[in-house]
Amino acid sequence: MSSSPEHRFFCIEGLDGCGKSTQINLLCEELGRRGFPTVRIREPGGTEISEKIRNIILSPAHGAMNFTTELLLYNAARAQLLNEVVRPALKQGKVVLADRFAWSSMAYQGYGRQLSLDTLRTVIDIAVEDLWPSHTFILDIPVEVFRDRAAKENRVADRLEQEKHDFFNRVRQGYQQIAKDFPEKCSLLDGTQCKIDIHKNILDSILAHITK
Ligand code: TYD
Question: Domains in the chain: how many in total?
Answer without folding.
Answer: 1
